[in-house]
Design a protein that fits this description.
Main location: nucleus
EC number: 3.6.4.13
CATH class of the largest domain: Alpha Beta
Catalytic activity: ATP + H2O = ADP + phosphate + H(+)
Largest sheet: 7 strands, parallel
Subcellular location: Nucleus
InterPro entries: DEAD/DEAH_box_helicase_dom, DEAD_box_RNA_helicase, Helicase_ATP-bd, Helicase_C-like, P-loop_NTPase, RNA_helicase_DEAD_Q_motif
Helix content: 25-40%
Strand content: 5-15%
CATH architecture of the largest domain: 3-Layer(aba) Sandwich
Distance between the termini: 144 Å
Radius of gyration: 31 Å
């Protein structure tokens, strides 16, 4: 008989191997996951890799592993990936690498990259990312941001140094090109970040004008969180046979850590539940609250002030410097609650068609000219058209997202809840839904958009089911909540329209002073910024009730705060606690007593007249 292989691995004669044996190792290799490359193996400049290591980025994400090699080869890329997946680094790192390679042989200055974003907050975020990535090559990379409200002369001086990379909104970029302050004659890279929002923010004409001024052969990179019809229009204008990356599998583990709830309740119960959640700290950690409009955000803030709950407001009326400062301090953990007004709801697909039909019907019915009269009225407050909260902004460590007012589309809901459960952390999404039969019963705080909450919820449930997610009902114990209702009613009555109008005016005045007159002072004295808090009290002129700031123990059930949501317990009466009368204390008689424990009425001695 033939011997087997010995220790020296000498071959032995035996039966012929089966034909299927050579294919087994190949199948095993296919089943094994491919090793994840590091940033140094992606072909990036060593100085950029050093800057990435300084920011504690261990390994590239899926978006970066797929997009960076394609961008370095000069291909057009259209990438769809979730918010927080590292899309900014996916297009910045290859662009900066190409600029550094070109400058090694040709140091001639010209603008090589143009990055277009829909909002000013996102532009500031991208500009800071450019500075961080070019920390070890700052002499070779010069960037400019064109989103601040400055005069044309100041803007020309910023562009006079011929920056390598320009970050701007489409409106500002076209204004600079049209005024000959910015030259795109030698442009090599064009980036559209959050590309599906660019057209929905009203930049149609600006994008068409910019497309005519671009030279031939510009490499285009488009990043988006959704593949919407708007992308098809932009792809035809700016791209040439782009490589489409639809990255879905990256977020399976993170989606499992996102818990979604909804509460069906009336308008008045919505305020009661919000009061209980934050006063009793049923939800802990940094929280984002989305409301329908600006008035709504100030009403909720003033309502929280009645209970000594600190919060800050984020809306389009505030100066851009203030908005950026609020986001930065929220990410540092200075603020716990941000009340953000989502004033530009997104609607794609079926939602957009439905909204378009409704607008046509309204326009056809309004023949008496009432709408024209409304349009002629002057706006009291000037809003920033380049504002957005639900998309693009990098909120960090958000523990919960609360939809105090439901969005108008399922896609907008997806972008809102994308603020939490990021980077492997757990998160909660809680939405208040008003049933149609209860809509309009509380007129002082009614919002028209809440009339369709149930329809929007049905669309959201269908959309989330396709992604493998579930929305569960969150049941509060209504009997235990009733003990707090009178406190909520007192606080809500104190928040009048006059108080809201006064709070808006006061905060605008304060923030304008901080952002304009004290800007240079705070740059020279950064420690003084710690004394300025954007979550201060605004309702100085309204009626305050000191007793609302503390929750008496007799309002809480025996089992504690969790009994309000988890257990069904009977009503706890006011007069009895543990079977005893609350007003009677140990060692005290029934009558009125002093410290001596004696009834003073029984110690008086009466003398009779002789």
């Amino acid at each position: 008989m033939k011997r087997k292989l010995d220790k020296n691995d000498e071959p032995e004669e035996g039966p012929e191997p089966k034909k299927t044996q050579p294919s087994k190792p190949d199948e095993q290799q296919k089943q094994q996951p491919e090793p994840e490359p590091s940033f140094s193996e992606l072909g990036l400049d060593p100085r950029l890799v050093q800057a990435v290591a300084k920011q504690n980025f261990e390994k590239p994400t899926l978006v970066q592993r797929k997009a960076i090699p394609l961008a370095l080869k000069g291909q057009d890329v259209l990438c769809k990936a979730k918010t927080g997946s590292g899309k900014t680094a996916a297009y910045l790192l290859p662009i900066l690498t190409s600029i550094l390679k070109r400058k090694a042989t040709d140091p001639t200055p010209f603008t090589a990259g143009l990055i277009l974003v829909p909002t000013r907050e996102l532009a500031d975020q991208v500009f800071k990312a450019v500075e961080e990535f070019s920390a070890f090559c700052a002499k070779d990379i010069h960037a400019a941001k064109l989103t601040e409200n400055v005069s044309d002369a100041v803007q020309r001086s910023l562009l006079a140094n011929v920056p390598d990379v320009v970050v701007s909104t489409p409106a500002r970029a076209w204004h600079s090109v049209n005024s000959s302050a910015l030259s795109l004659a030698k442009l090599q890279f064009l980036v559209l970040d959050e590309a599906d929002l660019v057209l929905s923010y009203g930049y149609d004409e600006d994008m068409e004008n910019l497309s005519r001024s671009l030279p031939k052969g510009v490499q285009t990179i488009m990043m988006s969180a959704t593949l919407s019809p708007e992308l098809d229009a932009l792809k035809e204008i700016f791209c040439r046979n782009p490589t489409i990356l639809d990255l879905k599998e990256e977020f399976g583990a993170e989606d499992e850590k996102l818990t979604q709830f909804y509460v069906k309740c009336g308008e008045e119960d919505k305020w009661l539940i919000a009061y209980l959640i934050f006063k009793l700290q049923l939800i802990k950690g940094p929280c984002l609250i989305f409301v329908a409009d600006i008035d709504r955000s100030y009403r909720l803030k003033l309502f929280f002030e009645q209970f000594s709950i600190r919060s800050c407001v984020l809306n389009s009326e505030l100066p851009i410097n203030t908005r950026i400062k609020i986001i930065e301090e929220f990410n540092k953990g200075i603020y716990d609650i941000i009340i953000a007004s989502d004033e530009r709801p997104e609607a794609f697909g079926e939602e957009a068609a439905e909204e378009g039909e409704e607008e046509k019907e309204k326009n056809s019915k309004s023949k008496d000219g009432q709408e024209n009269q409304k349009s002629k009225k002057k706006r009291k407050y000037q809003k920033d058209e380049e504002y957005g909260v639900s998309r693009g902004i990098d909120f960090k460590n958000v523990a919960a997202v609360i939809n105090f007012d439901m969005p108008t589309s399922a896609s907008s809901y997806t972008h809102r809840i994308g603020r939490t459960a990021r980077a492997g952390r757990a998160g909660i999404a809680l939405s208040f839904v008003i049933p149609k039969d209860q809509f309009g019963k509380h007129k002082p705080t009614m919002v028209k958009s809440c009339e369709k909450d149930e329809k929007v919820l049905a669309k959201i449930i269908r959309q989330q089911a396709k992604l493998g997610r579930k929305l569960e009902p969150y049941n509060f114990n209504k009997q235990q909540m009733e003990a707090f209702r009178y406190r909520m009613t007192d606080a809500l009555r104190a928040v009048t329209r006059a108080a809201i109008r006064e709070a808006r005016t006061r905060e605008l005045r304060q923030e304008l002073l901080r952002s304009e007159a004290l800007k240079r002072y705070f740059e020279e004295n950064p420690t003084e910024l710690q004394h300025l808090r954007h979550d201060g009290e605004l309702g100085k002129g309204m009626r305050h009730q000191a007793h609302l700031k503390h929750v008496p123990d007799y309002l809480l059930p025996k089992e504690g705060k969790k009994a309000l949501t988890e257990q069904q317990i009977g009503f706890v009466p006011f007069k009895k606690l543990d079977g005893k009368d609350r007003r009677r204390r140990k060692g005290r008689p029934k009558g009125r007593t002093f410290k001596t424990g004696k009834d003073p009425l029984k110690t008086f001695k009466v003398r009779r007249k002789k």
